[in-house]
Amino acid sequence: MKKAVVLGLFLSSLNLFWSQSQNLNNLKINEIQVIGSHNSYKKAILPEVYSYLSKKDSMNFLPRIQYEHIPIPQQLDLGLRNLEIDVYADSKGGKYAHPKILDLVKTSQPFDPEGKMKEPGYKMIHITDIDYQTWYYTLEDCLKDLKKWSAAHPDHDPIFITLEPKDGKANRFGTEPEHYTSKLFDDLDNELKNYLGKNKIITPDDIRGSYKTLNEAVLNKNWPKVKDAKGKFLFVLDNNSENRDLYMKDHPSLKGRMIFTNSMPGTPESAVLFMNDPSPKIAELVKLGYIIRTRADADTMEARKEDYSRFEKAMESGAQVITTDYYLPSKLFKSNYKISFDNNTYERKNPVNGK
């Protein structure tokens, strides 16, 4: 355990040195480019569950979710500066406490031995009932770990976090997620404030400042410098339909909200955008002042083919946030595919707008 701690401190110091050597501190947070993980909390599907499901997988869907991550604090120790979290509402508790696949497959590992899923609160799962293995059963525990890690590394560069509010129709097992409401989004904001701390969060209000709208502030490049955003987190809601609109309701320009939204360029709330497929259009938006999130790989396809073309386009685009499932090579199938910048780092000056 001590060796792991020493290694983590060494890697953190190394990444801090690399950040400073590139003079990132005096750049604004929209003038850097970082690599982070996709569905950062996810563990691999248990082998016995994977084997059972693969026999019924006529659409060959299962290989697309055959990936896993190391614990989030270890990801941050490596230098990753983006995380992605799926959040299911569970206001009464127990809704996701028994994955239905467990009625069909005898597993080697118990699910939720401490009974955390039985308590009310936001839960972290990829796909209910089948892809349920997670480093954190609750958002609360995840936020507490982030706060603990941040306190141990107070000079860390800002960390971007995508929050995807998961709901929708019932799955094939009959589990229908709880649907988000305005109150549940208010509670989600409070969860971030209570367990991470408002002082640790870069909010839309911080960026809007004295400008009339958040979008106006962004077009005027009113983002803070990296050195002024150290030790902080910036959250973005991964939704561009009903849940996004519900989160924005009665909060013009996201006034009072803790989370940025994926809103169309030019709308009052627009600041951070999701463009999963790297394209030349990203560079145009980056130059205007927007922060863009894109992907280096998806559905394990690039990793299986060891194809870096998408990552190369993502880097060239100037998208400030690039996500991957492979900051380390896969242990679930044979591949040397691994994503990083030069010198095995995950943060650099933005090639499009970095001064």
From TrEMBL:
This is Calcium-dependent phosphoinositide phospholipase C. Keywords: Signal. InterPro entries: PI-PLC-C1 (IPR032075), PLC-like_Pdiesterase_TIM-brl (IPR017946). GO terms for molecular function: phosphoric diester hydrolase activity. One of its GO terms (biological process) is lipid metabolic process. Residues 1-18 form the signal peptide.
